[in-house]
Protein backbone atom coordinates (compact mmCIF):
# COMPACT_ATOMS: atom_id res chain seq x y z
CA UNK A 1 0.00 0.00 0.00
CA UNK A 2 1.03 3.58 -0.57
CA UNK A 3 -0.52 6.83 0.58
CA UNK A 4 -2.07 7.14 -2.88
CA UNK A 5 -4.22 4.03 -2.26
CA UNK A 6 -6.32 5.85 0.34
CA UNK A 7 -9.60 7.66 -0.13
CA UNK A 8 -10.80 10.35 2.26
CA UNK A 9 -13.98 12.39 2.56
CA UNK A 10 -14.18 16.13 2.02
CA UNK A 11 -16.12 18.17 4.53
CA UNK A 12 -18.99 18.02 2.00
CA UNK A 13 -18.99 14.21 2.11
CA UNK A 14 -17.40 13.60 -1.28
CA UNK A 15 -14.84 10.80 -1.60
CA UNK A 16 -11.42 11.92 -2.80
CA UNK A 17 -8.55 9.63 -3.74
CA UNK A 18 -5.19 10.80 -2.45
CA UNK A 19 -3.86 9.72 -5.85
CA UNK A 20 -4.86 13.21 -7.04
CA UNK A 21 -1.93 14.54 -4.95
CA UNK A 22 0.77 12.50 -6.73
CA UNK A 23 3.82 14.64 -7.37
CA UNK A 24 2.94 17.06 -4.55
CA UNK A 25 4.50 17.53 -1.12
CA UNK A 26 1.83 16.90 1.50
CA UNK A 27 1.52 18.18 5.03
CA UNK A 28 -1.22 16.16 6.76
CA UNK A 29 -2.48 17.53 10.08
CA UNK A 30 -5.10 16.50 12.64
CA UNK A 31 -6.57 19.74 13.97
CA UNK A 32 -9.01 21.19 16.49
CA UNK A 33 -10.58 24.60 16.81
CA UNK A 34 -10.53 24.87 20.61
CA UNK A 35 -6.98 23.73 21.35
CA UNK A 36 -3.99 25.61 22.70
CA UNK A 37 -2.27 24.74 19.41
CA UNK A 38 -5.14 26.13 17.26
CA UNK A 39 -3.12 29.31 16.44
CA UNK A 40 -0.89 27.01 14.36
CA UNK A 41 -3.54 27.45 11.65
CA UNK A 42 -1.84 30.80 11.00
CA UNK A 43 1.53 29.14 10.35
CA UNK A 44 -0.10 26.45 8.22
CA UNK A 45 -1.83 29.08 6.09
CA UNK A 46 1.42 31.02 5.67
CA UNK A 47 3.18 27.87 4.45
CA UNK A 48 0.30 27.15 2.11
CA UNK A 49 0.27 30.65 0.63
CA UNK A 50 4.05 30.67 0.18
CA UNK A 51 4.46 27.19 -1.31
CA UNK A 52 1.16 25.99 -2.77
CA UNK A 53 2.08 27.21 -6.25
CA UNK A 54 5.37 25.29 -5.92
CA UNK A 55 3.60 22.00 -5.11
CA UNK A 56 2.66 21.99 -1.39
CA UNK A 57 -0.75 20.73 -0.32
CA UNK A 58 -1.98 20.90 3.27
CA UNK A 59 -4.61 18.32 4.20
CA UNK A 60 -6.51 19.29 7.35
CA UNK A 61 -8.36 16.56 9.26
CA UNK A 62 -10.32 17.93 12.25
CA UNK A 63 -10.41 15.51 15.17
CA UNK A 64 -12.40 15.65 18.41
CA UNK A 65 -10.53 12.89 20.26
CA UNK A 66 -8.38 15.13 22.44
CA UNK A 67 -10.24 17.03 25.13
CA UNK A 68 -13.33 17.46 22.91
CA UNK A 69 -11.59 20.43 21.30
CA UNK A 70 -13.29 20.10 17.89
CA UNK A 71 -16.96 19.74 18.88
CA UNK A 72 -18.59 21.51 15.93
CA UNK A 73 -19.94 20.20 12.67
CA UNK A 74 -17.64 20.07 9.65
CA UNK A 75 -19.22 23.29 8.37
CA UNK A 76 -18.88 25.08 11.73
CA UNK A 77 -15.22 24.08 11.95
CA UNK A 78 -14.61 25.27 8.39
CA UNK A 79 -16.30 28.61 9.03
CA UNK A 80 -14.28 29.14 12.21
CA UNK A 81 -11.02 28.45 10.36
CA UNK A 82 -11.86 30.74 7.49
CA UNK A 83 -13.12 33.59 9.67
CA UNK A 84 -10.39 33.36 12.31
CA UNK A 85 -7.32 32.30 10.28
CA UNK A 86 -8.42 32.91 6.67
CA UNK A 87 -7.50 29.32 5.77
CA UNK A 88 -7.62 28.32 2.14
CA UNK A 89 -6.13 24.80 2.18
CA UNK A 90 -8.22 21.64 1.93
CA UNK A 91 -10.21 20.69 5.01
CA UNK A 92 -11.72 17.24 5.22
CA UNK A 93 -14.46 15.71 7.35
CA UNK A 94 -13.84 15.19 11.05
CA UNK A 95 -12.15 11.85 11.78
CA UNK A 96 -10.73 9.70 14.57
CA UNK A 97 -6.94 9.28 14.45
CA UNK A 98 -6.70 6.62 17.20
CA UNK A 99 -8.76 3.63 18.29
CA UNK A 100 -11.20 1.24 16.73
CA UNK A 101 -12.76 3.90 14.45
CA UNK A 102 -9.51 5.52 13.35
CA UNK A 103 -9.13 6.61 9.76
CA UNK A 104 -7.30 4.01 7.65
CA UNK A 105 -5.11 6.86 6.38
CA UNK A 106 -3.96 7.55 9.93
CA UNK A 107 -3.33 3.85 10.58
CA UNK A 108 -1.02 3.96 7.57
CA UNK A 109 0.71 7.20 8.58
CA UNK A 110 1.31 6.01 12.15
CA UNK A 111 2.77 2.73 10.92
CA UNK A 112 5.12 4.56 8.57
CA UNK A 113 6.58 6.77 11.33
CA UNK A 114 5.81 5.67 14.85
CA UNK A 115 6.90 8.69 16.90
CA UNK A 116 6.99 12.48 16.76
CA UNK A 117 9.94 14.79 16.27
CA UNK A 118 10.06 16.92 19.42
CA UNK A 119 12.81 19.53 19.73
CA UNK A 120 13.87 21.44 22.83
CA UNK A 121 13.49 20.67 26.51
CA UNK A 122 10.41 22.91 26.89
CA UNK A 123 8.63 21.05 24.07
CA UNK A 124 9.70 17.66 25.44
CA UNK A 125 8.28 18.57 28.85
CA UNK A 126 5.05 19.79 27.24
CA UNK A 127 4.70 16.56 25.26
CA UNK A 128 5.35 14.51 28.40
CA UNK A 129 2.48 16.32 30.13
CA UNK A 130 0.23 15.93 27.06
CA UNK A 131 0.89 12.18 26.90
CA UNK A 132 -0.30 11.85 30.51
CA UNK A 133 -3.68 13.45 29.74
CA UNK A 134 -4.22 11.91 26.30
CA UNK A 135 -6.82 9.21 26.87
CA UNK A 136 -6.88 7.89 23.29
CA UNK A 137 -3.12 7.32 22.83
CA UNK A 138 -2.82 3.69 23.91
CA UNK A 139 0.02 2.48 21.66
CA UNK A 140 3.46 3.98 21.07
CA UNK A 141 2.62 5.05 17.53
CA UNK A 142 -0.74 6.62 18.43
CA UNK A 143 -1.31 10.32 17.90
CA UNK A 144 -0.74 12.08 21.23
CA UNK A 145 -2.75 15.29 20.60
CA UNK A 146 -4.10 17.77 18.06
CA UNK A 147 -1.77 19.28 15.47
CA UNK A 148 0.47 16.28 14.90
CA UNK A 149 1.91 16.87 11.44
CA UNK A 150 3.03 14.30 8.83
CA UNK A 151 5.23 15.41 5.95
CA UNK A 152 5.02 13.39 2.73
CA UNK A 153 7.40 13.81 -0.22
CA UNK A 154 6.47 14.04 -3.92
CA UNK A 155 6.79 10.25 -4.26
CA UNK A 156 4.35 9.52 -1.46
CA UNK A 157 6.95 8.63 1.17
CA UNK A 158 6.14 9.70 4.73
CA UNK A 159 9.40 11.46 5.65
CA UNK A 160 8.67 13.10 9.02
CA UNK A 161 6.18 13.21 11.88
CA UNK A 162 6.17 16.38 13.94
CA UNK A 163 4.75 16.79 17.44
CA UNK A 164 1.96 19.27 18.23
CA UNK A 165 4.59 21.54 19.82
CA UNK A 166 6.51 21.75 16.53
CA UNK A 167 5.46 24.98 14.83
CA UNK A 168 4.57 24.85 11.12
CA UNK A 169 6.98 27.69 10.31
CA UNK A 170 9.85 25.58 11.72
CA UNK A 171 9.19 23.03 8.94
CA UNK A 172 9.73 25.56 6.17
CA UNK A 173 13.30 24.57 5.24
CA UNK A 174 12.40 20.87 5.11
CA UNK A 175 9.39 21.66 2.92
CA UNK A 176 11.47 23.83 0.60
CA UNK A 177 14.01 21.01 0.24
CA UNK A 178 11.28 18.53 -0.70
CA UNK A 179 9.74 20.89 -3.26
List keywords for this structure.
5-stranded mixed β-sheet; two-stranded antiparallel ribbon; globular; 7 strands; 179 residues; alpha/beta
Spatial strand order of the main sheet: 5-4-3-6-7
Structural class, by secondary structure, is: alpha/beta
Q: Element order, helices and strands?
A: EEEHEHEHHEEH
Q: What is the residue-averaged pLDDT?
A: 94
Largest β sheet strand count, sense and barrel closure: 5 strands, mixed
* Distance N to C terminus: 23 Å
Overall, the morphology is: globular
Strand content: 15-25%
What low-confidence regions span 5 or more consecutive residues with pLDDT below 50? none
Radius of gyration: 15 Å
Q: Let me know the number of strands.
A: 7
Could you estimate the helical fraction of the residues in percent? 25-40%
How many H/I helices?
5
Report on the architecture of this protein.
The model has no long low-confidence stretch (mean pLDDT 94). The protein has helices at residues 40-51, 74-85, 104-112, 121-133, 172-178; strands at residues 7-9, 15-17, 25-31, 56-62, 90-91, 149-152, 158-162. It is 30% helix and 17% strand. Strands 5-4-3-6-7 form a five-stranded mixed β-sheet.
